[in-house]
Every structure is written in C-alpha cells, then in structure tokens.
Amino acid sequence: MEPIPQPQAILTPEEARDRMLRSGFVPQAEAEPRLLDFYGNNDTRSFIMPGTFAGRRAVCKIIHDPRERDVVGAHQRLHTASEGTCLRAPRVLYSHADPRATLLIMEALPEGTEQLQSPLSDEAREEFLRGPFADVIRIKDKLAYRKLDTEGKEDGDVIDFYGNRLRRWRALAEGRLTQERDAEIPPPSLLELADDVAHRAWNAVNVQYSVEKLRWAYGLSKPDKFHRVGDTYYITDAKLIAPRGEGYELAMAVWADAIMPVLWDEALSTEAAVAEIERRMKAWTDDWARISGEQGLPSYAEYIPSMFLERLAGTAYADTLANKKVEPKEAKRRLETLAELSARLYKTI
C-alpha cells in the first residue's frame, strides 16, 4: 500500500497568516482561523479565514494537502459544469500555488446563505435529493482533473482500492490504541469489534464489485457540505472529486445524515440505535430509488449494502478508534452498534 503523500514541510499557522497578509487579504478582526488536520497526527492540512480582499467580503484558504490536486481548476470546472443546475461554487478572486501549499481567495457566500444541517427532515431530504444531490450525480464526471486509468496502476479496480483503504484505516486505529486503553474494556477488544465490521465490508466489496472499475465520485456529497440561498446550493469544496466505487455519493450522504447522528447519541441502546438507523437508511434509499427513476439517474440499488458497509468500517476504525476524543466505554458502545448494524446489512447481500 502506498503511503499518503506528505507535504515537503509543515506549514505553521504563523507562516499561513503571513502568506494571507502578503496576498493582500485582510483577515476579519478577532477571527480565529479554522484549522483542518490530517488523520493520524496533528499536522494542519488547511487554514481557512474570513475577511476581505480588494474591498470585497472573501474567504482565504491555504491548502497544505498534496492529495488535493488542481484546486483552482476544480472550481473553474464546477463553474462550467454547473450551468443549468442548482449548484454553484464561490468565484475565485486570487490564487497562488507553490510546492508547499495553494493559497485560494474566494468570494464569501451571499448574505442569508444557510448551511444544511443533519439530520434532514423528510421534506428537506426530498429537496436535497431532487436538487443538489441529483445535480452532483449529473455533473460529477465533468469535475474530474484527469481520465481514469482503469487498466493501469494509477486507479486499478474497486477491490484493490478498498482493500488499501481498509488497511490504512486499521493502521490509524492501531496507532491510537494503547494497551492501557484497551485493558479498560472486557473482551472482545475494541480492535476485534472494529475488525468484525471491516471483515463484513471487505467480503461485501468482493461480492458486489468483483468485476467493477473505479468511477469518479464527489467525495463529500453529505448535506452539511452544501450551503443554500433560495434555490441555489453552493459547494465550497469543489476540489473533492476522487476515484471511488459506484454508489459512493449515496452512501456518504446516508452515512452523514442517517447513521452518524444516531450513532453519536449516547442515550440510545444498541437495539434502539440500530432500529432508528435502519429506519432512516430505508427512507433515504426509498426516496432516491423513486427520484432517480423519475430523473433518469442511477439508483445504485445493487451497490447499497457494500457501500454502506464500507462506510461503517471507516466509522469503526477512523471515526471511533482513531479519535482521541472518544473514551473507551463510548467507543465500545458505538462499535457494538456498528457490529450489529453491519451483521444485519450483510444479510441483505
């Protein structure tokens, strides 16, 4: 497995702020930058700051992540591809790239723009699927920065991709776990519970994607990545297009809206959490089956079990075990819910 490429040198918050000021960007008074870290360590991969540029409300991003390619081009492609849809990306006012980072200054979102919040109501879910989600599915191939090399080593097949992905997530989890932490929990161990979920995901991918190739997917198709004003939906992360298995966008949206809010509710028992997640998942997939049929878009029905199981494995390893903020007892509660949910979902394959 190839390691995630790392920047040439870590960009400190002080260096990032200096770059912002030298570009002519004026940070908002007393505002603190939003910092996004790499999984598995505390190195910052993005700095985001509100302010002004050339007298206009703007947002400055310094992106220090070698996995995010052609950031400016991604926004330009979205502007072109989104014509005639409800999607928009903030206009790029200034950009500069060097080997260490990309500096991007974009216009601020219009006044009155509201970020979508999960969980969506039934009505909001219908609007989301009919509007921005459907349009993402329509235009995603136009956002790609290159052609997929499905016959070569660059992209490979779905099984190779998800095998590497699961191993990377497990390594993150192992890196965060200690003997002392795991010793607080009676058998089975936290890692064993997560492995149980991942094994089902791996088996499902091998069954449902045995002859499939990777496709372009919009990597963050979850509701809270869309900002609405009137009938227009802004995407602030236009660059997040990546090779994934068919149906990834639907799995991401359902994971964020139907699974995570319930899983994080400490008041729910495993049985109650699983029942509520299953109810919400069914509402999402039933709605999309109907809407995709009406709009002539793929329903992804045949891929739903494996893509959902892949999301559960990522939740077990990366969002639970690799998350230092999750205490061992809470980790076990979440993992038990994920294990039961994955067992039920696996039976549908």
Write up what this structure looks like.
Helix 4 runs parallel beside helix 9 and helix 9 (304-321) packs antiparallel against helix 10. A hairpin with a 2-residue loop joins strand 3 and strand 4. The protein has helices at residues 13-22, 71-81, 122-139, 158-176, 179-183, 190-208, 248-263, 270-295, 304-321, 328-346, and strands at 25-27, 34-37, 44-53, 56-63, 87-88, 92-97, 102-107, 114-115, 215-218, 226-229, 232-235, 241-244. It is globular. The protein folds into 2 domains: 13-108, Phosphorylase Kinase, domain 1; 122-346, Alpha-Beta Complex (Aminoglycoside 3'-phosphotransferase, Chain: A, domain 2). The longest helix is centred in the C-terminal third of the chain and has 26 residues, at 270-295. Strands 1, 2, 3, 4, 6 and 7 form a 6-stranded antiparallel β-sheet that branches. It has a 4-stranded mixed β-sheet with strand order 5-11-10-8. A two-stranded antiparallel sheet has the order 9-12. The protein has 349 residues and is α+β, with helices and mostly antiparallel strands. Helix content is 46%, strand content 16%.
